[in-house]
């Protein structure tokens, strides 16, 4: 096994940019799953952790390398956890951020602030190889609330609708470096890096 090289099992360019910055302290050579294969596994599991494992296993098998996958999304308590594991395709078309945001605004139309609490969830799975029986798992949460209209142009996905109370800004108004210090993904990577350093 080559432990100096890792494949990132995502096809979302903006998510990949965040993952690469968060992984940089380890000084590994980073490869992308798109270099090895065109297919994507179906993200059909009911949990973020299981979907992250599906993606990591697929990338490890395609590349022969250690693999890291991120499965993430936004949970709104008043919507019983939706968009949840379906965050990327909430609006009907996979990866259509504008449609996803429109649907979320509609779902919360007229709801008071007290019913707009939300949290971003990030599950990371890291496999040393495709048949690794001891996957490393890391979770990160980021609490905020859903705005009534989009704000800001940074980031991706639901960032323009996610209000970060202690920053007094939406996630899309944050400097990318700040988002990468405090986000769900930042928290999950902090935990994963600690595990990788012990490996
Ligand atoms: O599966 P991969 O290829 O990694 O890319 P994806 O975009 O499909 O990623 P997910 O399946 O994990 O779906 C996560 C969705 O949740 C949203 N999301 C996740 N992290 C986010 C973040 O940091 N900011 C805003 N939205 C985010 C966004 O809509 C993503 O498309
Ligand atoms: Mg996906």
TrEMBL record:
InterPro entries: dITP/XTP_pyrophosphatase (IPR020922), ITPase-like_fam (IPR029001), RdgB/HAM1 (IPR002637). Keywords: Hydrolase, Magnesium, Metal-binding, Nucleotide metabolism, Nucleotide-binding. SUPFAM superfamilies: ITPase-like (SSF52972). Substrate binds at residues 10-15, 72, 156-159, 179, 184-185. The active site is at residue 71. Belongs to the HAM1 NTPase family. This is dITP/XTP pyrophosphatase. It comes from Sinimarinibacterium thermocellulolyticum. The lineage of its organism: Bacteria, Pseudomonadati, Pseudomonadota, Gammaproteobacteria, Nevskiales.
